[in-house]
Design brief:
The chain is of the alpha+beta class. It has one domain. Helix content is about 45%, strand content about 20%. The protein contains 3 helices and 4 strands, in the order αβααβββ. It has helices at about 10-50, 70, 80-90; strands spanning about 65, 90-95, 110-115, 120-130. The chain has a 4-stranded antiparallel sheet. A hairpin with a 4-residue loop joins strand 3 (about 110-115) and strand 4 (about 120-130). The longest helix has about 40 residues, at about 10-50.
């Protein structure tokens, strides 16, 4: 009795299982990459809208929740209704720290930390001459 040079059913099943595991790993990596790309995109859009809150008058809004239209309305006239509504929907809770202590007291600078809280919180430094 001769054996023909062919694969057994066990060998075929093992190779199918191994290929399936590799494909599942690749799909998982692709999903993680897609989720990270969405997160980075959302975070960058949010950071861009944070810049609307960094005007000179931000220091008077400590512990307030303000929308971008309120912050910008004294510097810019927004006459377009759609733009005004978009700015009114961008809201942040604003927290401003006490002036930070600097090592060199000879510098005539006051430094505060501005925290904007929302889905993605951010911190900014505010420098002002004394």
């Amino acid at each position: 009795m001769r054996h023909s040079p062919a694969f057994t059913i066990i060998e075929v099943l093992v190779s199918v299982v191994l290929i399936s595991i590799v494909v599942l790993g690749i799909v998982k990596i692709q999903q993680d990459n897609s989720d990270m790309a969405i997160y980075i995109s959302d975070r960058s859009k949010h950071e861009l809208s944070n810049t609307l809150f960094l005007g000179k008058n931000i220091m008077k809004y400590h512990k307030d929740e303000k929308d971008a239209y309120t912050i910008l309305s004294d510097r810019f006239k927004v006459s377009d209704f759609k733009s005004r509504e978009i700015l009114k929907n961008i809201k942040r809770k604003i927290f401003i720290s006490e002036p930070l202590k600097l090592e060199d007291d000879a510098l005539p600078i006051e430094v505060n930390e501005i925290m904007l809280k929302d889905k993605y919180s951010s911190r900014f430094m505010h420098f002002q001459m004394k």
